[in-house]
Amino acid sequence: MSGISDSDLTEMGLPPGTDKGRVLVIACGALAREILDLRAANGWDHLHLACLPAILHNTPDKITDAVRAAVDKHRGSFDSIFVAYADCGTGGALQRACDEMGVEMIQGPHCYSFFQGNQDFAAKSEDEITAFYLTDFLVRQFDAFVTKPLGLDRHPELRDMYFGNYTKLVYQAQTDDPALTEKARACADFLGLDFERRFTGYGDLAEALERAAKGEAAPRR
Amino acid sequence: MAEDDDDIILADLDDDELVQQMFDDLYDGLREEIEESVQILLARGWAPYKILTEALVGGMTIVGADFRDGILFVPEVLLAANAMKGGMQILKPLLAETGAPRMGSMVIGTVKGDIHDIGKNLVSMMMEGAGFEVVDLGINNPVENYLEALDEHKPDILGMSALLTTTMPYMKVVIDTLIEQGRRDDYIVLVGGAPLNEEFGKAIGADAYCRDAAVAVETAKAYVARKHNAMAAG
User: Fold this and answer.
1) Are A161 and B113 a contacting pair at CB < 8 A?
2) Fold entry, domain A6-112+203-214
3) Which of A88, A193, B38, B190 has its CA 20 to 30 A from that of B233?
4) ipTM beyond 0.95?
5) pTM of structure
């Protein structure tokens, strides 16, 4: 993963390796480091990774077509394909597309949910509707995903129009990184929100990827 | 848009020039300038409703069109809306006094579990600008809130908004409750929000999906006119 920058993952994603492999994971760029870490830790050398630009997070209506195009492009070169996206704001469209294409995807509404664990996230969701979530990647890329697209760099006075109904920023930490925690705290300060750090590790992503690596079908919703 | 705003003395402009300048100032999100221009037009004897429709709504219509065409983005629309709000706050108390035309009424709110209100607030403001009486229930509304407001205000229109794919199905809960109570057809139900589409609106039994505030106003006008015509005929 060395030599690949977060800004490249944000804007361009990551093309797959050229080796003929058995399993291709087509993922959101925001999950690249976590997936490569899991691959290395588990010795899943047969698992290859291609990432779409993480910034699609901000335009979820474009995710399904982008995933569909990536599956079409790569399916002839791999034995199986796994889509490392949750619903991610597609309103079920991505699940329907994956069903049509015969590929599996991650269960749950979004990465905040599967990092925390879908069951736990759902159980807490009613009490946390005023929480704004960030992951490791989103903390590192806060300017690209929040500050600039919302115009807060040019018009900080808009902050409360966007975030006035939120009360706290929950930093879902995938790793123990004091510097990143401080950056997340600064993001909370910038948005005028209380700060909570919640260590999640890789949550349900680890299990989903293990199933993909072993070629097992994920349970349907 | 206007590069030499600092050099323009608003009070020196004639009416047509001032309205054009207000279009520019709305586009640029200049709230103080809009407030000043509204005061100037009032002092010149313009009716509040005329200022609202010709200057403010006229200007926001341009902003809405450029947003739809991808020329303007959310931050710029919010700045424009904030400027319009400044003008609206001056005009609103005057509109009632001066007998402005009333197009109909609407109860609107973001559904349960959802705290996002930027789009809803834009719709509320543009509906008010178009002459609708708007009761805004705010965010995170369970079905009971909607029912209570419908009982109390007896509006023509129920508007529901959601930004999340996890919360938008709640709109169906509200509509199904209205159906169960035999009162669904008492209201025009309009829905909106970024993850929605026309197909979803139809599937949950809404009258229409409105993709933005300008469409919401046009849709509301058309449905209310149809409803009034039907009542007159019946």
Assistant:
1) no
2) Rossmann fold (3.40.50)
3) B190
4) no
5) 0.87
